[in-house]
Amino acid sequence: MQTAIHQPMAMTLVADTTITTPTTSTTASSPRVSSQPVPQDGPAEVEQAVVIVYGPGQDAIVHVVAEVLGRPWTTEKTSLATHVRGSSAMVVGVLGADLAHSLDACGDEAVSLSSPTPRIVINTHCVDDGSFPDETLTERCDYEFLYSHSPFLRRDLTRFLALVLGQTRPHEDLRTKTRTNFISTTFLDVHAALPNLDILSVGSDAVEIRVDLLVEPSPPGAVPSSVPSLRYVGRQLMLLRQHTELPIIFTTRCTRENGKFPMDDPALFYRYLRRAIQWGCEYIDVELWLPEAIRRRLAEQKGHSVIMSAFHDFSGQWRWTSAEAARIFAESARYADIVKMIAMVDTIEANYELEYFRSTVTRGGGGGGGGRNDATPLLSAVNMGQLGQLSRALNTVFSPITHPLLPMIAAPGQLTAAEINEAMHIMGALPKRDLYAIGPSRATPQSMFMEKCFNELSLPHTLTSIDRGPPGSIESLLRQPRFGGAAVHPPLASATVAAWTCPATIVSEAARAIGLVDTIAVVRGEPGGRATLVGENASWKGIRATLTRDYVPSAYRGRAAIILAGSESEASAALYALRSLGVGAIYTVGFRACGPLAAGLEPFTSLQSVQRVEQPFVMVSALPPEKSLLVQPLLRHYRTTGRTSPAAATCGKVYLDLTGAGARKGDPVGVAVGAGWTAYGIEEVTAWTTVETLRLLVGQNVPFDFVRMASGRIYLP
């Protein structure tokens, strides 16, 4: 039994030492790069103590959770009440058999997701032995994490914790997109989807698991059940989440609405949907016919999940102009964040009636685009059948899509993402644009991959790789009537882009602070409206996405970092990403900063400077290839100490290698792994940056795993 409190490793200065911050001056000739604020606050700290319930012999999961959260931890048997009341920053491990006694000692009779408790209780259960959690134990906990000892454990756990603790809110990003889609998987077993899941997900912003379509294997001679057990569903969901970074929509469709769940037992739906919330599903599909008491209770217990109210009409008599349509929307909106209304139609005119209905809801705040407000749920509405396919192209909020590799379509008339793009192009809503990869061919690794994505999604755009050329050549491209955006490598100075007047270009806050523009996006309001050119920086988002693969964002808060680079410009994207995570002191090697990100940076000027610092949480090397060897002594110096994690976990320090292409000296990533660091290479950052670049240029989502596969590298965690 572990009785000590284990503190996470962080960098601190040894007492009685001081490292001064260099002062910077700005001359009259220096361009004013930014008047915008630099991110300082970072992600919000988790205010609740985290109680991890584990099974016999599985206490190692407590240590992994603590590492992911960057918190101290203990598994002392009698410590729950003391630590919950004394510190909100504690991870407390409790054996499942002791949970009832421990909670009673805290004075709690029950646990509720809606109650303002000072702690959150998560039941963890390893399914490797074929077992399943005791339902009584599950009901006493806020959430439940099912896991297997696989290479995916750490990242699956990070994603789960980030959601249930409110560290990531994928819906907040998706609701601002011009268009969102989700893939409706129709496999009887998730295993069948895994070989093609990355291809299936191209163009999707979420993936739906149709629980009612899952078929649980039954013993020989037994009568197959029409409803898969929670044991089977839990393992299927775990498997799906391990193989996709997309948000998951948990759906239990009833027999009346083209599903297989029986309608004679509404409590069955509640049991499965409630468990989906506990399992950390991002979206929960709740059918409107369910009793109001169940819908209200799920809304009260949803935590950080998003409720999608679902209504289907297969009668063929539905009219969007009727008072019933407005009533259905109003009733759905009472307990939902997204309202789905889907009807079978037999006339082409029904699509125009739907668009009028959508416009009335949009004026009230529930549609897409600029008329939306946060108080009214979004509306996702389409017509079924061949005559209703036009509405699927016109719907912009969570359009259900299919794919040729799926065994069957989920609803009549469903289209693929490629077919929707083709239809939009024919209607003039998706005009052909000329996009560019600007820079030497060796410096624009995304260009070939982006062409693959255009083909996969049937986008009408063309992509041309060109050299940067003489001054003024890029501006001439931007003035072309069909200009659709550009990826620029190496990036342009943001001050240069901001100075363009013909055409005028807006530079984003991040690009101004970083001082570099690597993506020029074309932003349009309404179709046919005036276009605005925006200079963006996608690299910092790629760096941030990489850093938060194995740690929740708040794990970096207040921790110190070391960054090595040959110049400030080489380090600026990493500096911005670290600041967005709320890191503490940042120590620099190889450069001095004087731009907007310079405040608070402290240089290592001698060996004594290094020796005064105890332990960093994250180290980033942006050194050129010929100098990449210089980081290795620091990696060895700050070797990981303390208790070793189990084989499935990684160590509690992060190393990020941003060294680009070229003849390297040494193997910093290999040295980092050998010294106990969680190490990432430039390939991960490049893949995530490509994902962000495509979102900026064409507004379409391409999963990270597809980027790695199409780039010739199959990602393994």
TrEMBL record:
Protein name, as recorded: Pentafunctional AROM polypeptide, putative
Entry's transmembrane regions: none
Domain of life from the UniProt record: Eukaryota
Species the sequence originates in: Aspergillus clavatus (strain ATCC 1007 / CBS 513.65 / DSM 816 / NCTC 3887 / NRRL 1 / QM 1276 / 107)
Low complexity bias (residue ranges): 21-39
InterPro entries: Aldolase_TIM, DHquinase_I, MurA_subfamily
CDD domains: DHQase_I
GO molecular function, one term: 3-dehydroquinate dehydratase activity
Region feature (Disordered): 21-42
Pfam families: DHquinase_I
